[in-house]
Amino acid sequence: MTEPKLTLHWLNQSRAQRVVWLLEELGLDYEIKPYKRDAEIRAPKELADVHSLGKSPVLEIEYPDGARKTVAESGHIVSFLMRNFDKNNVFKPTSEQEFDDVEYYSLMSEGTLQPALSFIVVLRRGGEKAPWAMKSVIRTYNDKVMEAFNFPETLKCFDLLEKRLVEKSKVSTELYIAGERLSSADILLSFPVVEQVVFGDKLGSAFNKEEYPQLVTWAKQIRARPAYIRAQEKTKKFG
Amino acid sequence: MTEPKLTLHWLNQSRAQRVVWLLEELGLDYEIKPYKRDAEIRAPKELADVHSLGKSPVLEIEYPDGARKTVAESGHIVSFLMRNFDKNNVFKPTSEQEFDDVEYYSLMSEGTLQPALSFIVVLRRGGEKAPWAMKSVIRTYNDKVMEAFNFPETLKCFDLLEKRLVEKSKVSTELYIAGERLSSADILLSFPVVEQVVFGDKLGSAFNKEEYPQLVTWAKQIRARPAYIRAQEKTKKFG
User: Fold this and answer.
1) Which residues contact A123 (CB under 8 A, 6 or more apart)?
2) Is the peptide bond before A226 cis (omega within 30 degrees of 0)?
3) Domains, in order of start, for chain B
4) What is the separation, in whole angstroms, between the first and last Cα of chain B?
5) Which residue of A has its CA nearest to B48?
6) In the predicted model, is pLDDT for residue A199 greater than 80?
7) Which residues form the GST N-terminal domain (chains A, B) (predicted)?
8) Mean pLDDT over residues A25-38, rounded?
């Protein structure tokens, strides 16, 4: 073994898919260890044996000398892979401004957009589990919380992204969030924006595709990338 | 003007306090533009004029040549300041492992711990605003959501941090989360861990100080730092 061995602990319908995409963009060899969400739509307990927070993605690296490293947290995994396995510098920012933009949008994805979206799942699940007699009250309450918090917080991020892409569309038909090429900003935003909202139903009728034409174009371009398609193909069998 | 002019848009009871602390640790000159939460405990509308997401902290930089830059998102502001204004390299990681640890714990703070904690505020506010006749049902529901999601997600992070600090306490009485000195991990975790939980009441009785002795020691050490105390002094008058 001359190269480090990469194993990705992958969970269905999770943020892990982005790491498969990045591994494909980098042209790396890797193994996928698949996990399935339980009846409660939670990560299974076995994931806690891999990393104590019990979440996915987690990347394990086994080096040729036998040393092992466990890397968790999406943003950190993406950054770690780019720092250590981007032999052709396809992800290396070419200016300080590009570095700043990549970092801002990557952190905005993980620290602002994703949390507001994730909690919608928690609330909807709570609504489903509420006793029959209280379901109506709970659902009305959930809707109010989402209307007051989750939807506006999420849509403010979407407005910001659309505005940025409108500017970028004036100089190029190839759309990227941060610089002039693919970056961790596109990769990290692909799960919440592309999969959960533009092609998913996470915001329901609160999201109107017609108001976000450039974001939809960017989402379609991402879904058409050969590496993205390969990533989907490779994980399809795991459900 | 020979140095860039730094202005921090600061909101009471927000993540912005950490940036004041970092500015003090770096020994920089800066101005604070204070904002106050409205009756709904939300950021006031004027913050949206500074940055479209309408949140705090936001850092504005005016360069000697008149160029201006607006930097948002806590993790990015902290990283930006360390990259551009750490003249004595007091925050520069000294090894790859230290870099990785700093990045992991910084992102864990913003992407995992902080979101689970923040939503407690949203739920509690929702409970207060519920119509009188439904208050009891809503409060029971909120408690169940917090018990099923927010508390365990948060405590898993706290367990991980305590375990790490227990290891570190075996080799040093000065405790830091990532490496052997202060890093963005300590700075970013100071708001959720030190202020919101250890010395705050965000987890209520779900958090038992006695189970987290090293985390409490670390929190006390942070609060005793001269730069941290100066930061508190400087913002006290803004409420």
Assistant:
1) A142, A145, A146, A150, B145
2) no
3) 5-91 (3.40.30.10), 96-225 (1.20.1050.10)
4) 31
5) A156
6) yes
7) 3-89
8) 97
Amino acid at B214: Q
Q: How far is A138 from chain B (nearest CA, A)?
A: 7
At B61, give phi and psi (nearest 5°): -120, 130
Which residues in chain A have their CB less than 8 angstroms from residue B75's CB?
A: 103, 107, 111
CA distance B97 to chain A (A): 10
Query: Could you tell me which residues are beta bridge partners of residue A35?
Result: A11
A145 part of contact set with chain B, CB < 8 Å: yes
Token pair of A184, please? 């961790």
Per-residue pLDDT tens digits for A117-137: 999 999 999 999 999 999 999
Nearest to A104 among B73, B108, B130 (CB): B73
Tokens representing residue B5 in the block: 């002019």
Distance from CA of A15 to the nearest CA of B (A): 12
**Partner A contacted by B79 (CB < 8 A):** yes
Report yes or no: B77 and B71 within 8 Å, Cβ to Cβ.
yes
Interface test with B, best of A51, A73, A128 (most B CBs within 10 A): A73
Chain A residues touching B141 at Cβ < 8 A? 126, 130, 134, 138, 141
Query: Which is it for strands A5-11 and A68-72: parallel, antiparallel or unpaired?
Result: unpaired
Q: Is the pLDDT of residue B232 over 70?
A: yes
When scoring B145, B156, B183 by the number of chain A Cβ atoms within 10 A, the one with the most, hence best to mutate, is B145
| pLDDT tens digits, one per residue of A90-123 | 999 999 999 999 999 999 999 999 999 999 999 9
Number of C-beta neighbours around residue A5 at 10 A: 14
* Residue B116 to chain A, least CA–CA distance (Å): 8
